[in-house]
Specification:
The protein is an all-alpha fold. The chain is built from 20 helices and no strands. This is Major facilitator superfamily (MFS) profile domain-containing protein.
Length: 457
């Protein structure tokens, strides 16, 4: 581990993951004050306001799809490093538009800013982990790769902590919450300007000398040339792999079957209701009769539990294996949400159930983080032969954003119509997921890919 490597890992993981996580969590607590402001300009009735608010939070995912689609284009054209740098100008523009909206009294600017920050998140989610894996020495790739996910969960926590109404989530201060994205943007610009370009990109664009000097910077005089040779070999090996086209993906059983599983995993991950909980936990806690203030503190606790469990799950996945965790997670979440539903129904008559609801939300986060949260991404890549992985991801990532968007958009309106019964949608889909994945998914841990592929054939 050289200083340059640590510097580059921090600049890329914190700079990218922070925007992604922070903006996922930041609108949760100040929903009320921002809604009130929007209503002052647009004078909406209750259901219109609900739809506008749901659009404001979830339009970020549409941006995510756009950003994801731009990932390979930009990162192959101007390089990983410049894409990451450029992306911060997108974030800065979004921050100024979102925060500025209040001062010029234009709610549509907040919605536009959320779309733009989504593009930023989509690019970050694509290029951040790519850059991280391409600058890491082989033996550290797994550990450094999980940095991105960890930063996301930590920054969701940060967002929840600074956005409670004791801190910045107030009528006058909430724009600052949105201007805050300028800080990580500035940090990443400075950090990446002084970081090396991805060695893989330099080799692919035939800048061999530059690649060697950057490799020496990253890994030292001795390891630099050795690691560079390893990367050269990897590039050679990948040129020898058979080409997998989208047509193959859809027609050849060994690709099509895992592709269906992977898309269903992404759907099930979002239909678990996790973002309903992340976006709206304050709201859920208030439904459970906590005071506004206690509800916000309980929401910060959600972020904290998420961080701790995510760290823990990195080890758990290697010990227990993928499939048991996935099934335990989905079965547990089905049961947990069923109980939560009962609590929310009877909370009016039995006050103590409010606290049971809070416990169940926490347990839900734990079950999500050990199973549905992390496993689909790990398994997703393990179900495919190396040659098919990038293409499979190019389907799975937008699928994930899309399901995220749909759940974010429909949750509040449906909750208005159905009340707590809205959770039935999540319960039913999780029950289905538990059974389906139990039957259809093979364990992938410590199993060669040939064996897994043979199963699908
Ligand atoms: C929004 O504004 C309208 C009219 O100004 C008002 O009738 C309504 O109650 C407000 N809604 C909320 C949720 O504040």
């Amino acid at each position: 581990m050289t200083c340059v490597l640590v510097w580059a890992v921090l600049a890329s993981s914190i700079g990218s993951g922070f925007q992604h996580g922070y903006n996922t969590g930041v609108l949760n607590a100040p929903q009320k004050v921002i809604e009130t402001w929007m209503n002052e300009t647009w004078h909406m009735d209750d259901s219109e306001l609900t739809i506008i608010w749901s659009t404001t939070t979830s339009i970020m995912c549409i941006g995510g799809i756009i950003g994801g689609a731009l990932t390979s284009l930009l990162s192959n054209w101007i390089g990983r490093r410049k894409t990451l740098i450029l992306n911060n100008f997108i974030a800065a523009a979004a921050g100024i538009i979102m925060g500025g909206s209040k001062y010029v009294n234009q709610p549509w600017m907040l919605i536009l800013g959320r779309l733009i920050i989504g593009i930023n998140a989509g690019l970050n989610a694509g290029v951040g982990p790519m850059y991280l894996s391409e600058i890491s020495p082989m033996e550290l790739r797994g550990a450094i790769g999980s940095m991105y996910q960890l930063v996301i969960t930590i920054s969701i926590l940060v967002a929840q902590a600074v956005s409670i109404n004791k801190v910045l989530g107030t009528e006058t201060l909430w724009p600052i919450l949105l201007f805050l994205v300028l800080i990580p943007a500035g940090y990443q610009i400075l950090g990446m300007l002084t970081s090396p370009e991805s060695l893989k990109y330099l080799l692919e664009t035939n800048e061999d000398e530059k690649a060697l000097s950057e490799s020496v910077r990253l890994f030292g005089e001795e390891q630099g040339p050795i690691n560079l040779d390893l990367i050269k070999n990897e590039i050679e090996d990948s040129r020898l792999l058979p080409k997998v086209t989208m047509r193959d993906m859809l027609h050849v059983a060994k690709y099509r079957r895992p592709l269906i599983i992977m898309c269903l995993l992404m759907g099930a991950q979002q239909l678990s209701g996790i973002n309903a909980v992340i976006y709206y936990s304050t709201h859920i806690f208030k439904t459970a009769d906590l005071s506004e203030e206690n509800a916000q503190i309980a929401t910060v606790g959600v972020g904290l539990v998420n961080v701790i469990t995510t760290i823990f799950s990195v080890f758990l996945v290697e010990m227990v294996g993928r499939k048991p965790l996935l099934i335990i997670g989905f079965a547990g979440m089905t049961l947990d949400l069923s109980l939560l539903l009962v609590c929310l129904y009877y909370v009016e008559s039995i006050a103590i159930l409010a606290y049971a609801a809070v416990v169940l939300v926490y347990l839900f986060i734990i079950l999500f983080a050990i199973g549905a949260g992390s496993i689909p991404w790990i398994m997703g890549s393990e179900l495919f032969a190396t040659a098919a992985r990038p293409l499979a991801l190019s389907v799975a990532v937008p699928a994930n954003w899309f399901f995220n968007f749909v759940v974010g958009l429909i949750f509040l309106p449906l909750q208005k119509i159905l009340g707590p019964a809205v959770f039935l949608i999540f319960i039913v889909s999780q029950a289905f997921a538990t059974v389906y994945f139990h039957i259809k998914i093979p364990e992938t841990k410590n199993r060669p890919i040939d064996e897994i592929t043979a199963l699908f054939e």
